[in-house]
Amino acid sequence: MIQGPLVDAFGRVHTNLRLxxxxxxxxRCFYCMPTEQVQFRPRHEILSFEEITxxxxxxxxxxxxxxxxxGGEPLVRSQLPALVRLLRQIPGIDELALTTxxxxxxxxAAALRQAGLDRLNISLDTLDPExxxxxxxxxxxxxxxxxxxxxxxxxxxxxxxNAIAVRNMTEDEIVPLARFARQHxxxxxxxxxxxxxxxxxxxxxxxxxxxxxxxxxxxxxxxxEPIERTDASQPATDYRFASGQGRIGLITPVSQPFCEQCxxxxxTAEGQIRNCLFSTDEWDARALLRANAPDxxxxxxxxxxxAGKHAARGGDSSEFxxxxxxxxxxxx
Length: 332
Ligand code: SAM
Ligand code: SF4
Description:
This protein is α/β, with parallel strands linked by helices and 332 residues long. It has a single domain, classed as TIM Barrel (Alpha-Beta Barrel), CATH 3.20.20.70. The chain contains 10 helices and 14 strands. The strands form 2 sheets. Strands 9-10-11-8-7-6-5-4-3-12-13-14 form a 12-stranded mixed sheet. Helix 2 runs parallel beside helix 3 (105-115). It is globular and about 55 Å long. It binds S-adenosylmethionine and iron/sulfur cluster. Residues 25, 27-29, 32-33, 71-73, 101, 327-328 line the site of iron/sulfur cluster (SF4). The site of S-adenosylmethionine (SAM) has 20 residues, from strand 5, strand 7 and helix 10.
């Protein structure tokens, strides 16, 4: 197999893979899923654990070091800890993380930890049950909160909370979420709303920008000091409260895209490789996996995907075309 790192035409070295294990979900966040008639992929189209593991083994030989399991909601995929255990054994994979909505976490946190999962990001947009229902179209806030505490009990350290930032909708959540995160020693990150909603109604006016979030936090808690990046490719800009405990991260793909440092590839649940959330092209790994093609062919496909990456493709780029897929179909 042609060895050597996955470097694109702009010198970005790809070491990070987002692995979607399902497009299904147990809630219906308005910024991700369509209101009605959600179409999920039939099960036979979804990669098996063996197929995923084989892909990751090849990717690891090309320099992929970090895996983030996502979806859809990854915890609705049956036997997920078994996949974690398989991925854990792949030489070269240094870190295994997972992003979840937390609804099923209380039941699964201990098994995931035992299987070797290193890190957890839990999405939590509000602490208000009625607002949670409006944002997610489900009444499950209690389950998410139980999941967060169960993750802590299971031994997960440095748990991150992800909160979406939507104008005229989540402003009032900022300060209570920050207070909750500080109280429970969780790192809170706000993510600007991106044009990846299932209903395709996103409008730039709805983006609650990082700068405004910062302003509201400083009004409530006093100054926030930027923390120097230890990893140039991390999407969040981190801040600490000058007054003491706690960190806040701002992920600003719309107002300040971080394409220049991007080191990520994505594999969708049905085995399509993507080089960007906003990519309009995909490379079909499932076809090779199911044809039992040699590792060299898979490696060549991964390299072709990396080689095809654009310099930038965010919502403010001149090259921006809204992708056909919504967030749950890509893997956030
Ligand atoms: N279901 C899991 C969850 O919600 O954490 C994992 C998949 S979800 C697609 C991953 C992350 O994407 C979540 O934190 C969610 O808030 C975020 N997300 C979904 N749609 C988004 C959008 N249109 N803009 C910005 N972030 C979005
Ligand atoms: Fe499900 Fe996550 Fe999308 Fe919400 S953001 S609908 S939890 S996949």
